[in-house]
Specification:
Blueprint: H1 2-18, H2 25-32, E1 34-39, H3 50-58, E2 62-65, H4 75-92, E3 97-103, H5 105-116, E4 122-128, H6 136-141, H7 148-151, H8 154-158, E5 175-181, H9 203-206, E6 213-217, H10 228-238
Parallel strand pairs: 1-2, 1-3, 3-4, 4-5, 5-6
Helix pairs in contact: 1-3, 4-5
InterPro entries: AB_hydrolase_fold
GO molecular function: hydrolase activity
Protein name: Alpha/beta hydrolase
């Protein structure tokens, strides 16, 4: 529990120091009709995105930040579960313009859901460190037999093998901006691409056909969601602003 309290306290400090400037009443009313759905990554819960949620709350958005059991079901089931429940919560709060801010694996759930059915009212999505091109890290860990009873095909579907779902999703059909981190925070695994990366997701893995902009940030994968500049850029994505500092895309 001390770790939880530290994370919450750090998030509160960030919110107090980094909250967006006060907007006009008209802006806040318009933003409140925009529901920003936050989706966390593997091995995490909604707590990991609390600081980001507080930041967007203060900007005037309606936010939904729900936990989902990331390792217990295959990707299609997780997408249906997490996105459907989040959309229902948005609608129950009277918000009909749908935006997403996702972290790592959470972005894959949006792509999977949108590939099966249109998301009514969707405007745009901002994905932080998504393994859109398939994950070398997931592919590596999926080979360990002791993990197979708990990962329920997720790591295999997230990897780069024949059973990868990511390699079958195709280009995104919605407005998408990606923020990729570039400072490694773990030792690179065997066969990890020798290219710019954060040690978990390489730059080539963060790219996806159809993305509008891709911005690189000098932060680590693990704590990028707590970074002040990442929070600010996420707000800019939700408002449809140009991110700048864009790198060349495939």
């Amino acid at each position: 529990m001390p770790v939880v309290r530290k994370v919450a306290s750090f998030g509160l400090i960030l919110w107090l120091l980094l909250a967006p400037q006060v907007r006009s009443d008209d802006y806040l009313v318009a933003s409140a009709d925009r529901c920003v759905i936050l989706l966390h990554g593997l091995f995490r819960s909604s707590l990991s995105l609390k600081p980001m949620q507080w930041y967007l709350d203060h900007a005037g958005y309606t936010t939904v930040n729900l936990s989902y059991p990331s390792l217990l079901y295959p990707i299609p089931e997780l997408a249906e579960m997490a996105v459907t429940q989040s959309l229902r919560t948005c609608h129950s709060r009277g918000a009909h313009q749908i935006n997403f801010v996702t972290y790592s694996f959470g972005g894959i759930l949006v792509r999977q859901y949108a590939s099966v059915q249109p998301i009514q009212g969707m405007q745009r999505a901002g994905m932080l460190g998504p393994p859109d091109g398939g994950s070398h890290v997931a592919f590596y860990y999926s080979s360990f037999e002791f993990l197979q009873p708990i990962e329920s095909d997720v790591l295999v579907q997230l990897g780069k093998g024949d059973e990868s779902i990511l390699l079958t999703l195709g280009p995104v059909a919605f407005e998408l901006d990606v923020i990729a981190s570039t400072i490694p925070d773990i030792t690179l695994l065997p066969s990890f691409p020798d290219e710019l990366s954060d040690g978990t997701v390489s730059l080539s893995e963060a790219r996806v056909p159809g993305v509008k902009e891709l911005l690189t940030m000098p932060v680590t994968h693990t704590v990028m969601i707590l970074n002040p500049e990442v929070m600010r850029h996420s707000d800019e994505v939700e408002r449809g602003m140009h991110l700048g500092l864009v790198i060349a895309l495939l």
